[in-house]
Amino acid sequence: MHILIQGAGRGIGLALAQRARAAGASQLFLTARDPQSAPGYDLLPPSDDVMWLTLDVTEPDSIAAASTKVTAATDQLDRVIFTAGMLQDGSIRPEKRINDIDADVLTRVFQTNALAPVLMARELWPLLRGTHPLHYAALSARVGSISDNALGGWYAYRASKAALNQLMRTLSIELARANPAACVASLHPGTVDTNLSRPFQANVPAEKLFTASYAADCLWQVLDGLDARMTGGFFAYDGSPIPF
Fold first, then answer.
1. If you write DSSP's letter for every residue of 174-209 in order, what string do you get?
2. Are 81 and 16 in contact (CB under 8 A)?
3. Is 160 helix (H, G, I), strand (E, B) or coil?
4. Do 235 and 188 contact (CB within 8 A), yes or no?
5. 3-state SS class at 238
6. pLDDT tens for each residue of 16-68
7. SS3 12
8. In this predicted structure, what is the pLDDT of residue 92?
9. Domain covering 2-236, topology
10. Under 8 Å CB-to-CB from 61, ≥6 apart: which residues?
11. Which of 5, 19, 102, 106 lies deepest, with the highest CB count within 10 Å?
12. Tens digits of per-residue pLDDT, 176-218?
């Protein structure tokens, strides 16, 4: 399989890249904002079947440049997974009330959490269309479910992941016409012990706090079980559907 994993430098993305290697991927395209400084670069160094690409998901030009290199290296992709996610960064914190909302923060979180999968699908379209089985997935979050929102707060994160789900759903409809064997999916990995969740783990039961490796194994198995009939869906790490 020819597999592209965005955010493979660390965390879930790196664990997914290692899982892809274990599954026998014939070609791995791995991205990071600065590949050579990422832990994944040393664990999965460049080789005949591993290509590292510089990619900043908030920069359309960076997305286009990385896509051009992938398109030059292969004529088909079989599995694409996006792992980008921002909940807090520097002075950015999840909003507890409406007075905490900041327009610039909303824009930055949306750029990070929602836009790259469809922008890159546009650039990679020749590699996605056809009749070959394809999984095109992005990591979302259960808190992005509108119908499951009972607590409020976290405006930017909730809304950006809801936007991601809608963009992926819309992509699934068009891609089904270009490749009837394709499956587009949003995936909830659970609470994973990464930098994103670390400040919010205090109330997470130990059995519900997953290692990146465990989450990657679960997500890989979910994708293995999905086909074109499930395209456009939103699924948890155990394969159960999540309402939008």
1. HHHHH-TTEEEEEEE--EESSTTTGGG-TTS-GGGE
2. yes
3. helix
4. yes
5. coil
6. 999 999 999 999 999 999 999 999 999 999 999 999 999 999 999 999 999 99
7. helix
8. 86
9. Rossmann fold (3.40.50)
10. none
11. 5
12. 999 999 999 999 998 877 665 555 555 665 566 789 999 999 9
Owner of token pair 């990422």: 38
How far, in Å, are 116, 137, 155, 164, 195 from residue 110 at the CA level? 10, 17, 11, 9, 19
* Domain locations in the chain as residue ranges: 2-236
**Tokens for 199?**
């400040």
Neighbours of 190 (CB within 10 A): 19
Query: 200 is written with which tokens?
Result: 């919010």
Q: Which of 205, 71, 90 is CA-nearest to residue 129?
A: 71
Report the C-alpha gap between 204 and 77 in whole angstroms.
36
Does residue 26 sit in helix, strand or coil?
coil
The tokens for 168 are: 């992926």
Whole-number Å distance between alpha carbons of 186 and 131? 21
The pLDDT assigned to 88 comes to: 78
Q: Are strands 2-6 and 27-32 parallel, antiparallel or unpaired?
A: parallel
Give the HSE-up count for residue 235: Cα atoms under 13 Å, Cβ half-sphere: 23
